[in-house]
Write a structure and sequence with these properties.
It is a single chain. This protein has 226 residues and is of the alpha/beta class. Helices cover 40% and strands 17% of the residues. An eight-stranded parallel β-barrel has the order 1-2-3-4-5-6-7-8, surrounded by five helices. The protein contains nine helices and eight strands. The radius of gyration is 17 Å and the shape is globular. The chain has a single domain, classed as TIM Barrel, CATH 3.20.20.
């Protein structure tokens, strides 16, 4: 299960440490934190090592190769230094992956945005298919996809489904939710991405455990149905 943090710095580190045993990837939006610095970066890496989870900065890179490479390696966030993977749009073409891969360590990866969970998204079927084709051309760098369905038949691709919430409904800004069972059994998610369902909960750790159990139970049900 992945978890999105978009809260204040203190609670971010506190929650990362509290929930670390229950997640496989921490999905961050560090540009929402006002005082992110090198000390913050090292602290987050230490927490990830302690609990054995990976860090994915949800940067959604979407520019020409040279610009993206500079955004990735420099600036106030120096994303390349502290992440295990980043997200990117396929819209600019394969140059964006070439640029990111050139600047990455061998163990780092990219996750492509193939589909989105917002109402009215422009990620059409042909766009998604082109995104998957682009991923196939970078087998050593593209880990998988953020998506709403099983977009690739390649068993090496990881499918991460966002917009997962136990009380599935939506919000006033176009977000559309599905519950963990639907994400795993109907949409083929390998990993569920949970944000407000945990972060906005009165007891985040208890909420994380509920999501973890719901997703795992759904996974077991797919095995029994085969």
């Amino acid at each position: 299960m992945t978890l999105l943090f978009a809260s204040a710095p203190f609670s971010t580190w506190q929650l990362a440490d509290q929930l670390g045993p229950h997640i496989c990837i921490l999905k961050t939006h560090m540009d929402l934190l006002e005082d992110f610095n090198r000390e913050s970066m090292l602290r987050l890496r230490d927490i990830a090592a302690k609990h054995d989870f990976l860090i994915m900065e949800d940067r959604k890179f979407a520019d020409i190769g040279q610009t993206v490479q500079l955004q990735y390696t420099s600036g106030p966030f120096s994303t390349q230094l502290w992440t295990d993977m980043v997200t990117a749009h396929s819209l600019p073409g394969p140059g964006i992956l070439t640029a990111l891969q050139q600047a990455s360590r061998p163990e780092q990866a990219c996750v492509l945005i193939a589909e989105m969970s917002s109402a009215g998204t422009l990620t059409s079927k042909s766009y998604t298919e082109a995104t998957v084709k682009m991923a196939e051309d970078f087998p050593d760098f593209v880990l998988g996809f953020v998506c709403q369905s099983r977009v690739s038949h390649n068993p090496g691709h990881i499918h991460m489904t966002p917009g997962v919430r136990l009380d599935a409904s939506g919000d006033s800004l176009g977000q559309q939710y599905c519950d963990p069972g639907c994400a795993v059994t109907e949409r083929g998610a390998d990993i569920i991405i949970v944000g407000r369902g945990i972060v906005a909960s009165a007891n985040p750790e208890e909420a994380a455990l509920r999501y973890k159990k719901a997703a795992y139970d759904a996974y077991l049900s797919t095995l029994s149905s085969k």
